[in-house]
Specification:
It is built from one helix and nine strands, in the order βββββαββββ. Helices cover 7% and strands 46% of the residues.
């Protein structure tokens, strides 16, 4: 006899992206939700059978956001252009990747901090294909936490 509430896995398709001060729309793909800690190996004199592994810095990876392009010039492109040209005060932004359940309720939130666009890319254009044109934006992230 089963007791308690049923818990199903969340679908990877039910999420949205928030970035401070930008109207970003919906993304179809997010990669890079990853945090990794460096390992420093230390060989202790006289101990030839093992290597000590010490904790180093923890770093989040860059985030890549992909979506179908709807306008030739949008807010993400303008933000990237500011950094590429070095125009004026360069504004780093924080934001969130929010996972939702089937009812639409928020289940998990990954917050990224002090991000800035390091790369913008457009998918290949091909007159023989019927694919949607996809805009990709890669963000360098200083910190990533989960709420």
């Amino acid at each position: 006899m089963a007791t308690g509430q049923r818990r199903d896995h969340h679908g990877a398709f039910h999420f949205h992206v928030e970035i401070d001060g930008l109207s970003v729309g919906a993304f179809r793909h997010v990669t890079g939700l990853k945090s990794e800690t460096e390992i420093f190996e230390y060989v202790e004199g006289g101990d030839n059978e093992s290597v000590r592994k010490l904790v180093g810095q923890t770093r989040p990876s860059n985030l890549t956001l992909k979506r179908g392009i709807v306008a030739a010039e949008g807010e993400l492109w303008r933000w990237r252009r500011e950094f590429a040209a070095g125009d004026g005060p360069l504004k780093r932004r924080s934001g969130s990747i929010v996972l939702r359940d089937d009812s639409g309720a928020e289940t998990t939130r990954w917050n990224f901090h002090k991000a800035w666009p390091v790369r913008w890319e457009l998918s290949d254009l091909d007159s023989n294909a019927s694919d949607v044109v996809v805009e990709s934006l890669e963000l360098a992230v200083e910190r990533l936490d989960k709420k």
